[in-house]
Amino acid sequence: MITRRGFLLGAAGFATSVTAPCAAHAIPAMPARLSFEASRKGSVIGSHVIDFERGGDDLLVRIDVRIKVGLGPITLFRYRHQAIERWRGADFIGVETTTDNNGEALRLSARRVDGKLEITSTKLGRQIVSGDMLPLSHWNIRCMSVPVFNPQDGTLLDAPVTPRGIETVEFGNGKRVRAQRFSMAGSAPLDDWYDDTQTWCRLRAQAKDGSIVEYTRTE
Which residues contact 81 (CB under 8 A, 6 or more apart)? Predict the structure, then answer.
């Protein structure tokens, strides 16, 4: 059976609480856009697009995730997640998200208040958490080394992260790069890869039914 936790790739459900060796405080220079194609069992099931807009020290990050899983003409699962993250220098300022999780409407906002992070969500209400916490949106390698929360519903996440060394990652256009792999354990195991500029370049996750979902970088 197809479940939400099996297919949330970058919007939800996976965490880290252990320090990874290459987590830098400064946000590295990012391309204007990162784009991924999501596939499962050899079929494309969606996309994950991130746009970066810089203005002086400010960084605006727009995230759009669209997943659709079907059986022939029948749609079994549909997911849409949109987020806007705001950063100033290396500091996370806040995020607003909207999610359509197979018909369930969710909203979340997070902002800094007196050195803490205030998270308000339709699922969990208002929470005051550590100011070190970040949304698990995957594009930022710092998610591999700090406490994180689910940017879909505000759940505080905790799962160990293990660096796996350098591997070769192939993009959709055939380009190959060397990238550091990190493995997250927990109820929905996954791997994230970051190249030598600390730019996110691949994701692989195990769905609840045991199938593997892959992100292939297209831009």
Answer: 8, 10, 11, 12, 63, 64, 65, 97, 98, 99, 100, 151, 152
